[in-house]
Write a structure and sequence with these properties.
Layout (H helix, E strand, L loop, with lengths): L4 H48 L3 H29 L1 H20 L4 H15 L3 H11 L3 H32 L4 H4 L1 H15 L13 H24 L4 H20 L16 H31 L4 H7 L1 H21 L2 H19 L11 H23 L7 H31 L4 H29 L3 H14 L5
Helix pairs in contact: 1-2, 1-5, 1-6, 1-8, 1-11, 2-3, 2-4, 2-5, 2-9, 2-16, 3-4, 3-5, 3-8, 5-6, 5-16, 6-12, 6-13, 6-15, 9-10, 9-16, 11-12, 11-15, 11-16, 11-17, 13-15, 14-15, 14-17, 15-16, 16-17
Length: 486
């Protein structure tokens, strides 16, 4: 009697597909809590200001202490995971992130909270790029990978956009400390599931550590952010601020000089010879600066200027989360079928329109009118994530997947840090000693215009880096990175 080999092969294929989807789900659990923590604290800022007696710069550091350290360590985490094992680094990150979340919830002072946010970021840096590397090495078919990245974009975007909504609910019910508790059970579940289902993987040729490059990256971002945030307080011509910007410029110059001379650099600058890759980095910085600025200004506008509670402010921001959830998977399908050009055009146009509309708001504008620009922004942000990630990892050798993904993730975090720092500095300068409640609307208008300008950059760079000539540069870089493919 003939053996049904076809049925056996079909079952094996379905089993393998189920295994890949489970790994994707586990990775998305970590991305959800990291995405949440990027933005959930935004809606808690007024409560933290009142409870811990924080000024505007203190609120900026509460956000940027996390995103700054995250941005500084992402590339180190990605290359380390490629070298010593992606599952091992991923699990370590989950443990540190959960412990940092617990420390945040126990913070009795602003200084404690900022230090605990740094610990959170150390753990978070081991999650985003490593999860992306695991996904990339699990889904090797380009079409399946684009769809998986679309799911990743939906979950990551959902976490970031849902943060203000969930934060409002938790703050109203328990207090601002509760926004950090949610990370602990999700982190524990992800640790257990990773140990059982995620296989260990490494790069074929491990990369050597680059401590000098890591220090230069940290110095560049830390001094730049310090100068922007503290400029309104200390004065833009203060020796501290001038020194901070000079140190930032020197660190960047040192990085550009040092990295090309290493065999295994922390940042492979050859990536940036690809116009689509460089465009993806600039788009990530601009798009996520717009997101951070939108949430930072939006929650202060609704709570400080309009007097809404944290819960109501979070609910008014629900259109951002809803539109992100709806359009992220659509973006993944569009990228898989037609490439990145159309999603980037939609993203840039929608984000530009949202910022421009909000710049015209006054203290008398009905809060319900915010639903339109928030929905537009959610549409744009939902379309944004997948093109960035797909461009970053597509065409790169799989051995460097962690590094390429971590550069893209770093760009996102740099964008968020700069968004809060720059827009917060603009608002602080506009307030000129006045109170948030009486003058915030007027002072925030230039900030919303910066959001619109960041969206316009997404649109223009997206158009410029999706041409045939731009794609040819990506092919040349791929051949140079992996001569066997050239």
């Amino acid at each position: 009697m003939p053996v049904d080999h076809g049925g056996g092969r079909l079952r094996a294929i379905e089993k393998e597909r189920g295994r890949r989807l489970l790994i994707l789900l586990i990775c998305c659990m970590s991305l959800l809590i990291v995405g949440l923590d990027n933005t959930i604290v935004q809606v808690a800022l007024p409560s933290i200001r009142e409870d811990l007696d924080a000024g505007l710069s203190g609120l900026q550091w509460t956000v940027d202490a996390y995103t700054l350290v995250l941005a500084s360590l992402l590339m180190l985490a990605g290359s380390t995971a490629d070298r010593i094992g992606r599952r091992r680094v991923f699990q370590t990150g989950l443990v540190v992130f959960a412990l940092g979340s617990l420390a945040c919830s126990l913070a009795p002072t602003l200084e404690w909270l900022i230090a605990a946010r740094v610990l959170q970021a150390v753990g978070g840096s081991m999650l985003n790029p490593v999860a992306m590397s695991i996904i990339t090495n699990t889904f090797t078919d380009p079409r399946e990978r684009a769809q998986a990245i679309g799911v990743w974009g939906a979950v990551s975007g959902l976490g970031m956009a849902l943060g203000p909504v969930l934060g409002g609910v938790l703050i109203n019910a328990v207090g601002w400390q509760a926004i950090f508790w949610i990370n602990i059970p999700v982190g524990i579940a992800a640790i257990v599931l990773t140990a059982v289902y995620v296989p260990e993987s490494r790069a074929d040729r491990p990369r050597r550590p680059d401590p000098a490059g890591q220090l230069l990256v940290l110095a560049f971002l830390a001094t730049l952010t310090f100068g922007i945030i503290e400029g309104p307080n200390l004065g833009w011509v203060s020796p501290w601020i001038i020194g901070a910007f000079a140190a930032s410029a020197a660190s960047l110059a040192g990085l550009l000089y040092y990295e090309p001379r290493r065999t295994d650099p922390l940042i492979d600058l050859r990536f940036f010879r690809s116009a689509p890759f460089s465009g993806a980095v600039l788009i990530a910085i601009s798009g996520f600066a717009a997101l951070a600025g939108m949430l930072f200004l939006g929650t202060l506008y609704l709570q400080e200027a309009r007097g809404l509670s944290a819960l109501h402010a979070g609910l008014w921001m629900l259109p951002i989360a809803a539109a992100t959830v709806i359009f992220s998977p659509i973006s993944g399908r569009l990228v898989g079928a037609r490439g990145t050009r159309l999603p980037l055009i939609i993203a840039g146009a929608a984000m530009t329109a949202a910022g421009a509309i909000l710049a015209g708001f006054t203290v008398d504008t009905p809060p319900a009118w915010t639903l339109l620009p928030y929905a537009l922004f959610g549409l744009g942000f939902g379309m944004l994530n997948t093109p960035i990630t797909n461009t970053a990892v597509s065409g790169m050798p799989r051995a460097q997947a962690g590094l390429a993904a971590s550069v893209a993730s770093t760009s996102r975090q740099v964008g968020q840090s700069l968004g809060v720092a720059v827009i917060g500095a603009v608002v602080a300068t506009g307030l000129s000693g006045r109170t948030l409640a009486t003058d915030f609307t007027r002072a925030s208008r230039p900030g919303f215009l910066i959001v619109a300008a960041a969206g316009l950059i997404v649109l223009l760079v997206g158009l410029a880096t999706t041409t045939r000539r731009a794609r040819a540069s990506a092919d040349r870089v791929a051949a140079a990175l992996d001569p066997a493919r050239g």
